[in-house]
Amino acid sequence: MLLTNELIRFFAAGSFALIGLFAAVQAIRSYSFPAPRQSVKTLPDLQTPAFLFDQDTLVDASPSGAALIANSQAGQSDRDAVIAVLSRQFPNLREKILSLGTDCSVALAGTGDAGLGLTLSDRQGLLRISLNAPGVEAATRHYEDLERESLLDELNMLRLITRDTPQLIWTEDAQGHLIWANAAYLSYADRQMPDDDRSGRVWPGERLFADIPPPLPNDPRTFGGRHALQLPGERAEHWFDITAVPQDGSVIYFAIDANAAVRAERAQQEFQQTLAKTFAQLSTGLAIFNRKRQLAMFNPALLDMTGLAFGFMSTRPTIDMVLHRLRETRKLPEPKNYNTWKEQFSALEAAAKKGTYSELWEMPDGQTYRVTGRPHPDGALAFLFEDITAEVSLTRHFRAEIETGQSVMNALPDAIAVFSPSNTLVMTNAAYDEIWQRDDESQMLVHDLRSALRIWKARCGPSSLWQDVENFGQMRRDSHIVSDGLIMTNGRRLDCAVQAITGGMTLVRFTPAMARLESSPQPPRQAYG
Questions:
Q1: Neighbours of 53 (CB within 10 A)
Q2: Rg for the chain (alpha carbons), in Å?
Q3: Which of 398, 448, 459, 439 is nearest to 418 (CA)?
């Protein structure tokens, strides 16, 4: 019996100890980890409109509050939508929100009805906006009035927009009958009526744009196009860009004035036609490549010069394709190294971009082209092909004639110098350079008659000829030849003659006296019988 009592006491003491230990653990846990509070980023289940904002972002809203801003404008923030709905009853709502301090609350009274109130509160950086009214029925009535006023404001704004917009807006049913139209559409419809019939018709019975096929109302796709409207008594057409949007069994049409765009396009087409006609009359070949390096424009002269087929050029080939075709038809200068020729393609395009490409292409058939590359707006390139074969041939002919004339003058024993009408030295021959040019002097030292006279006077004895030569150069007398004998400082004798030649130029000739004596006629020998 004693043993049983001891066991009972032992188990009882152990139970109390375990209960105390569990209580202590629970106390420690409750002290270290407090129970979480209800999140401030949610609203309780409210019947009145309430909104919770984090800056401009709507965090939560009651069902009645979400209904108030359900029809907000696209792109409008949620807070602006709430302010727009409530601003009629609370005009200074935006200012109150901006001036609201941290962890503060403000109560506002409605201007239209004293029973409607608004509470603004800031808690931990979150803004809460809540409407309140005494009684459930009064609150429901106030909230319905707010929603109705918001819808009416939006409806009035839409009416003003459709009334004052310059666009033509109208609605047709599935059969093409006019259901609704704005003032701009009715104005054109009234102008399309005859003058004697305008007073008797109020609603237009015929479609303003009869050539537009009515799309299917149930088709979700949007249709568009440009159409013209011819009004009675007006020669000019009125152009519109029309968009048709099927909507709930009907079709809404939007027509935008496109007269300026049509005039600009026509002016551009006329300008392009004028350019095309001008380019067609040019003897210079023209090829314009767009930014994708495709042929955008060319003229007939290019086809005549290169021999390229019109069918090939009309396919808008790239610049590489055109150059390859020119090489195949031997209309490109053929280099000895094919790889070098390939590299010239990229060099040609790069140089043309900078506007520095200009080369002479000498063809195997003897023709010579001057090819010039010029950059154009929007990354385009223009190449000009000029046939300068005749010019090159004429230049070579003139150069050959000049070289032949110079060779003939150099073969003459007389020293010759030719001066222009302005007394500038134009030409000398080898005999002149040998007599009057020293080895230590440049051949182009003498540039005019006055400089030449100084050299002649310095190397010859005194003579009255020099004054006559200077007067002759000033007066250009063509009636006589000024001449006299000269003795140089080295003892050499010369005969100098000055005369005018074609073009107002002056020819000065120095003849050695020995040559004059040898060329003089000998007296006839007497014959003895």
A1: 21
A2: 53
A3: 448
Amino acid at 120: L
Residue 184 sits at the vertex; the CA angle it makes with 179 and 190, to the nearest 5 degrees, is 80
Hey, what are 402's tokens? Answer: 């000049």
Q: How far is it, in rounded angstroms, from Cα 318 to Cα 294?
A: 4
DSSP state, 275?
H
Identify whether the C-beta of residue 51 lies closer than 8 Å to the C-beta of residue 58.
Answer: yes
pLDDT of residue 15: 41
CA geometry: angle at 186 spanning 182 and 192, to 5°?
155
Q: What is the pairing mode between strands 250-257 and 168-172? A: antiparallel
- Number of DSSP helices (H) and strands (E) in the chain, helices first: 16, 20
Which pLDDT value is given to residue 351?
A: 77
Question: pLDDT band at residue 143, thresholds of 50, 70 and 90?
Answer: low
CA dihedral 413, 414, 419, 421 (to 10 degrees): -120
Q: How far is CA 56 from CA 103, 271, 401, in A?
A: 18, 54, 91
Query: How much is the pLDDT for 335?
Result: 65
pLDDT of residue 239: 92
* Residue 103 zone, left/alpha/beta (φ > 0; ψ -120 to 50; rest): left
Confidence of residue 117 (pLDDT cuts 50, 70, 90): confident
**pLDDT for the residue numbered 414:** 92
Rounded CA-CA distance 13/9 in Å is: 6
Region 442-461: what's the mean pLDDT? 80
pTM above 0.90, yes or no: no
Long-range (24+ apart) CB contacts under 8 A made by 494-501 are: 494/415, 494/435, 494/460, 496/465, 496/469, 498/468, 498/469, 498/472, 500/472, 500/476, 501/418
What's phi and psi for 234, nearest 5 deg? -120, 130
Start-to-end Cα distance in the chain:
211
pLDDT score of 22? 38
Instruction: Give all strands of the β-sheet with 105-109 in edge-to-edge order.
Output: 57-61, 50-54, 126-132, 117-123, 105-109
- How far out from the chain centre does Cα 466 lie? 70
For range 489-494, the mean pLDDT: 90
Residue for token pair 């040609």: 348
SS3 171: strand
- Which residue in this structure is represented by tokens 């506007």? 355
Q: What is the phi/psi pair of residue 262, to 5°?
A: -65, -40
The DSSP result for 367-378, as a single string, is -EEEEEEEE-GG
